[in-house]
Structure formats: structure tokens, C-alpha cells
Inverse folding.
């Protein structure tokens, strides 16, 4: 009798346990990138009821294709929830639920949090929206704002000059939530007093997107000073740079400078550069004339930019001696004083490798010497 009761009780408990629903896998707290596909797992053993997900307590629906949420889909073979593409607005607290019925109890997973990281939006300098050039007076304080929207975590904004150096002085940053309450807007303010014309840009990145994005340049020019122009050249190129952009200025006497070093005896309305090389990359060519008060006024500034050539470079003389031998016959017939400027190939170089002679960049051998004059004094250059 007792054995019969035990067998009946054991059979009842086994059937009861077998009929209960239970979770094989449950969702967990998840952080994902906006724009990706994310899956919240929910696998149910002995499933008797219908699956449904809730977000912040609101049911999303029981159909596999959730009509009200076209980016949301439930798996046919499980209760997994897939979201693609993931948006910042999808953040919230999610829960997997399975209904009961016919004596089977409903079950619910533990609530989990879904967080979405977003790439910062394209940064831009507010003052450069209409025009990429800002003209200011010398000594005037300039205030610039750079904005980036939609980042999560909030974007960090950095400022850079035209040479790629980071600007860190007198920079303030403010962060506030966007209207969606999920992402952030970052505004950075830079204050400075430019001593000369320069280019400014800003960049935005956050902890989730370290590469970041970069704004367009804003060019800051001082009133009365010419706008910086760029001239891209390859190895061996020749170019004529006119002082007044190919317009004649009568009998005006011109002065030419390379990196603020005057090139004596160059007084024509243009400067001819022959056989350009990488050593002149980022060099600035300036031309000045006399104003009514007999003061030198710079009217054009051109930055020479080196571009790697894919063609075979033009051959340069191998030694300084070859240059002198080649031109020796000309010098016998006509004596001419020439002025040259020694150019240092690198900032750390202690001796120059090239000299500027009659509008051409020349390669000098070690210990070679050249004489030059500006009409008043004589100079020697030694490599």
C-alpha cells in the first residue's frame, strides 16, 4: 500500500516538473554600438506559452515580426530579440516574458539594461559655417566655438593649428544632453590673439570611437595682410609666382622672401622657382612692395606644398662642382654677382645641404664654398 502511494506521488511530481517552463538562456546587461545588430538571448525549455519582450515595462508584441517596431524581430526557434540597426533611442530596460496556461505558470527573466554607444557627429567650427575665412585686427581676441552632436559617451573636442599642433591654452568645454535624452552635445570654446594669419580646425572623439572626426579648416587672417595661398608641386617642377597674382604694378620695386629670408637681387614682379624639391615643403614665399609712406607691405604669401611624384624625378646635378663646370663658360663671358640663401634641410640639421642660386635649389657637396653679394656686402656659404 505504501509502495503504491510512493509510486503515484513520484509520477505526479515528475509530470508536474516536466510540464513547467524554464529558461535555458537569459538576457544580460549589454552595451553595443549604434548602427550594429544586437541580440538579446532568451531560450526557454519546455515552452508552453507565447514569448513577448517588454521595454521599460511596455510590451512590444507577440508576433515574430513586430509591426510597431520594424527594426525588432523575434527568433522563430527561440525567444531571442534582434535589433538592427541599433539606435540610441533603443536604450532601456528589457525583459523576456513567456505566458502560461493549462496549468502552466508564466515566467519572466530578470530585467536587463541595454546601453547604446554613439559615434560623435561631424564637428564644425560655428564661425566657419558661412565663410571659411575670418578677418580680424592685429591684437584682437578671437573666440571660436566647435560643436559635435549625437555622441555617447559625450565627445571630447580638441583644437589644432595648420601645422598639426594641438592648441591647449584657454580652451573650455561644455556638455549637455540632446532632446532625445540619450545622446550628448559638446561645445568647445577657444580664445586666442593671433599674431599672424593661421589655420584652425577641431576634432571630436569619445571613449567608444577613438578615431574621431575632423572639421574643415577656418583660416584666420589679419586685416591688411594677404590670404595664405597653397601651391602644390612635385619633384623637379618649375613655377613662376607673381607678386600681384599676375597683374603688373608698373615700375614698382619688389622684394622677395623665402621663410622670411630676403632673396637679394630678386626685384622683378615674379619669382621663378626651378627644380623644386621636398626640402622646400611648407616653405612660405612672400612678396612685398613700398607703400606711400615708403614702408614694406607684404601683398602676397604662397606656401609651397610638396606632393610625392609617381613619375621618375628629373635629374639634378650630382655635385656642386658639376654646376660650376656647366656654367663656367657663361661666367667667362659675363660677370654677374649672384646672391644665394642657405637652406637647412631639417630643423635638427647643423649644416645646410642646399643653397638657393638664381631662383634654383642647388645641391652642394660637403666643404664646398660659394661667394655672393647683395650689392653692399659679400657673403660666403659653406656646407
Amino acid at each position: 500500500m505504501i509502495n503504491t502511494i510512493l509510486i503515484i506521488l513520484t509520477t505526479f511530481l515528475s509530470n508536474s516538473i516536466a510540464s513547467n517552463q524554464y529558461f535555458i538562456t537569459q538576457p544580460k546587461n549589454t552595451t553595443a554600438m549604434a548602427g550594429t545588430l544586437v541580440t538579446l538571448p532568451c531560450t526557454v525549455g519546455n515552452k508552453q506559452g507565447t514569448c513577448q519582450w517588454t521595454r521599460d515595462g511596455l510590451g512590444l508584441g507577440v508576433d515574430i515580426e513586430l509591426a510597431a517596431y520594424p527594426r525588432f524581430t523575434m527568433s522563430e526557434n527561440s525567444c531571442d530579440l534582434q535589433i538592427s540597426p541599433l539606435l540610441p533611442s533603443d536604450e532601456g530596460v528589457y525583459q523576456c516574458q513567456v505566458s502560461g496556461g493549462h496549468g502552466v505558470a508564466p515566467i519572466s527573466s530578470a530585467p536587463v539594461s541595454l546601453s547604446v554607444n554613439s559615434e560623435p557627429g561631424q564637428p564644425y567650427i560655428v564661425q566657419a559655417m558661412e565663410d571659411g575665412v575670418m578677418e580680424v585686427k592685429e591684437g584682437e581676441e578671437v573666440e571660436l566655438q566647435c560643436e559635435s552632436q549625437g555622441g555617447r559617451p559625450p565627445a571630447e573636442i580638441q583644437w589644432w593649428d595648420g601645422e598639426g599642433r594641438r592648441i591647449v591654452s584657454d580652451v573650455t568645454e561644455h556638455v549637455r544632453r540632446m532632446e532625445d535624452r540619450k545622446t550628448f552635445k559638446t561645445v568647445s570654446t577657444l580664445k586666442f590673439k593671433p599674431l599672424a594669419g593661421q589655420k584652425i580646425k577641431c576634432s571630436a572623439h569619445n571613449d567608444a570611437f577613438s578615431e574621431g572626426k575632423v572639421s574643415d579648416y577656418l583660416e584666420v587672417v589679419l586685416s591688411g595682410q594677404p590670404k595664405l595661398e597653397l601651391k602644390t608641386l612635385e619633384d623637379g617642377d618649375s613655377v613662376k609666382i607673381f607678386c600681384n597674382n599676375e597683374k603688373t604694378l608698373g615700375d614698382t620695386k619688389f622684394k622677395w622672401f623665402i621663410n622670411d629670408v630676403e632673396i637679394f637681387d630678386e626685384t622683378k614682379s615674379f619669382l621663378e622657382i626651378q627644380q623644386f624639391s621636398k626640402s622646400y615643403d611648407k616653405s612660405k614665399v612672400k612678396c612685398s612692395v613700398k607703400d606711400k609712406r615708403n614702408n614694406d607691405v607684404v601683398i602676397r604669401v604662397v606656401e609651397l606644398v610638396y606632393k610625392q611624384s609617381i613619375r621618375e624625378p628629373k635629374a639634378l646635378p650630382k655635385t656642386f662642382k658639376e654646376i660650376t663646370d656647366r656654367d663656367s663658360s657663361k661666367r667667362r663671358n659675363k660677370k654677374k654677382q649672384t646672391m644665394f640663401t642657405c637652406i637647412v634641410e631639417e630643423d635638427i640639421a647643423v649644416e645646410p645641404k642646399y643653397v638657393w642660386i638664381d631662383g634654383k635649389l642647388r645641391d652642394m657637396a660637403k666643404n664646398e664654398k660659394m661667394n655672393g653679394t647683395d650689392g653692399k656686402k659679400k657673403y660666403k656659404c659653406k656646407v
